[in-house]
Amino acid sequence: MSEHEHEEHQINRRGLLRWIINVVVGGIGAVLAVIVGGAVGSPSFRKERSRWLPAGRILGLQPEQPQPVTLRVVRKEGYYEAVDHEVVFLIRGAGDKVTAMSSVCTHLGCHVSWDPQGRVFRCPCHGGVYDITGKVIAGPPPRPLATYSTRIDPDNHEVFVEL
Length: 163
What we know:
Blueprint: H1 3-45, E1 52-57, E2 67-77, E3 80-92, E4 98-102, E5 113-115, E6 120-122, E7 129-130, E8 136-138, E9 147-148, E10 150-152, E11 158-162
Antiparallel strand pairs: 1-11, 2-3, 3-4, 4-9, 5-6, 6-7, 7-8, 10-11
């Protein structure tokens, strides 16, 4: 084997090793891209379905008296089902119209409570005050309380809240 053939053989062997290393590094990069891309992109592709949850019967609600109700919210996390509890206020208005209002203060997420003497919702954390419609009337909250859609089953008078 001449010296020239020996150099050409080494160059080809180096080229092959370089090619193998590039393929391995590229494969590792592709696997990492799929893992990271799936973790980052997956929540944005998941469709959130609205859920109508039973919240009680309209017959048990006094007009213009907010009633706190705890809703049981089931979330699927892979093979596991997590259960959250969401507290909403049901407010029966005129003509059997029911409004569902969040109990979470829009300032820092504390839970508000109904003050029947003052006829307002009060946040115990930083003094936020809301009227019966959820509008801010005092304190630091930047927005009114969130409201949810409701519907009433005409057969059994059950109230459903859409979350």
